[in-house]
Design brief:
Length: about 475
């Protein structure tokens, strides 16, 4: 058992700073208070932004040899690895997620810094032949100040996913942490602080999204916005960003479908459904929230998945159960209400369907809904909870039409032993990433991002680095040639 500091601060211009107001953070598994944190005001946000602005304008992160940034990123990774246990405990308590998953988040965060450290000295431009008398080449400049707005479901790994490439490319950063789960990010920041980056290179503030998040998103001193969160918030940020034409990366929600064919490996499928929709209590943007099953095996699959769901062990994150609480009472009510509306529309509960009563925390039963039709709300809207909608299909064309028939397009999956069929589908699925025979196959090395309302721009992989730079072309007239 680790102890947790009772009060946490923001990190602005190289210093930890309190604010006049505080936010209370509660454990979703018990509803008991974990700690308080400084609630950044607009004035605090402005100070953080100006610190980043000064750092970006000083070019301290770019006038050094690129090898210096490699060293910084590797040192950050090492410092994160040194706080995995302490950080995981804090994250598990404030967020409700399992301790093992919280540990994985910190390890993944370290991996992002190691991965992008390897690219920090390889951001190479092109030389473009223009014939005699000219020399032309491109260089990649950092954006300048990168504003990164982070959600609560994987705060530490999502933050590292954007922060590591931003620093590798030489940007200064302001991170707006999520008000429901900000403490793990303070542990991450403590690790980063030990490395001694130039002052103002990384600033971390926790404040209300609608207040400080919105203020920063419309600020002309921001050079780039990286937003991960809900569609509605993303749209509002885009409207603000339009004011100063601030380029943005939008990682939004999903309603991702797995397509299941009769030749599927049953064991592989069940393992994928378990992690696909019940990992992190289904609070995953790329959750497998729709299971599209060929009608010939529909009843068989529904029964197997419902049995698996009924057998899941529910409990406190620190005990590493199969199913953890959802983040808040509001989230739980919203999930339950969607399940009720689904039943009113004709869906049938095969398992779960309601909150688990008798526990103090915010627990939703692992839910499998059958007889779902493609137009029902439960088949169209993101639930962000442990709720699987199972939909039958007859032909390949039906399957594609249903899978592609929402406004989202984050990930998708195909489960079949027929590789030709899998690849045929993979090409036609409207999604940024397609998993074949294992949900969440892929990693920090593989580009990730959406289509449609799931957003635009890519994170992860080598490709993501180029979201954090601008191309500049230098065209030179050589005389005497
Ligand atoms: P959210 O949109 O409510 O909040 C995300 C962040 O935005 C928070 O830090 C919040 O304080 C801030 N915010 C809120 N209103 C704002 C405003 N008007 N201006 C600026 N910032 C504002 O999302 P959430 O509930 O924290 O996260 C869940 C959502 O995130 C889901 O829809 C999920 O699918 C999505 N998500 C997407 C990805 C991805 O990579 N595509 C990853 C994780 C979560």
């Amino acid at each position: 058992m680790h102890s947790i500091a009772s009060h946490w601060l923001n990190f602005i211009d190289g210093q930890w700073a309190d604010s006049e107001q505080h936010l209370s953070i509660n454990n979703p598994g018990t509803t008991e208070p974990v700690a308080t944190i400084a609630q950044a005001s607009v004035a605090d946000a402005e100070r953080a932004l100006q610190a980043a602005r000064r750092c970006a304008d000083s070019a301290e992160l770019t006038r050094c040899r690129p090898a210096q940034r490699v060293t910084w990123l590797l040192e950050i990774a090492a410092q994160i690895r040194a706080v995995v246990e302490d950080g995981a405990w804090v994250l598990c308590q404030e967020n409700g997620k399992s301790l093992a998953d919280a540990r994985d988040e910190f390890i993944e965060a370290a991996r992002y810094f190691e991965y992008y450290a390897g690219m920090a000295d390889k951001i190479e431009g092109k030389s473009i032949p223009l014939g005699n008398g000219y020399m032309d080449f491109t260089v990649y400049d950092p954006m300048g100040v990168s504003l990164q707005i982070v959600p609560w479901n994987f705060p530490v790994s999502i933050c590292a996913r954007s922060l590591a490439p931003a620093l590798a490319a030489g940007n200064a950063v302001v991170i707006k942490s999520p008000e429901l789960s900000p403490l793990g990010l303070c542990v991450l920041m403590q690790a980063i602080e030990r490395v001694g980056l130039p002052r103002g290179a990384v600033n971390l503030i926790c404040g209300r999204g609608r207040e400080v998040g919105a203020y920063l998103a419309g600020h002309r001193d921001v050079d780039q916005i990286v937003f991960t969160g809900s569609v509605g918030t993303g749209q509002s940020i885009l409207r603000s960003a339009a004011e100063h034409a601030i380029p943005s990366v939008m990682e939004l929600g999903g309603k991702s479908a797995a397509l299941v064919f009769p030749d599927v490996d049953r064991e592989q499928l069940l393992a994928s459904v378990k992690s696909g929709i019940f990992f992190n209590a289904g609070q995953v943007c790329s959750a497998m929230s729709r299971l599209l099953v060929h009608r010939s095996i529909y009843d068989e699959v529904v029964t197997a998945v419902a049995n698996m769901a009924n057998g899941l062990q529910v409990g406190l994150g620190q005990d590493n159960p199969d199913l953890t609480p959802v983040i808040s009472a509001g989230q739980l009510q919203g999930i339950e209400a969607m399940c009720q509306r689904a039943q009113q529309e004709g869906a049938v509960v095969a398992s779960g369907g309601e909150a688990i009563h008798g526990l103090n925390g915010h627990y939703m039963a692992a839910t499998v809904l059958r007889d779902v039709t493609p137009q029902m709300e439960i088949a169209q809207a993101e639930v962000f909870g442990p709720v699987l909608a199972v939909i039958p299909f007859d032909t390949e064309e039906d399957a594609i039409a249903i899978a592609n028939g929402t406004e989202f397009g984050l990930v998708a999956g195909v489960f079949t032993q027929d590789l030709n069929r899998a690849l045929r589908f993979a090409r036609r699925l409207r999604a940024g990433q397609v998993f074949i025979n294992e949900w969440y196959a892929g990693g920090i090395e593989t580009p990730f991002g959406g289509v449609g309302l799931s957003g635009f721009g890519r994170e992860k992989g080598q490709e993501a680095l180029y979201s954090y730079v601008r191309t500049k072309n230098l065209a030179v007239r050589i005389t005497g040639e």
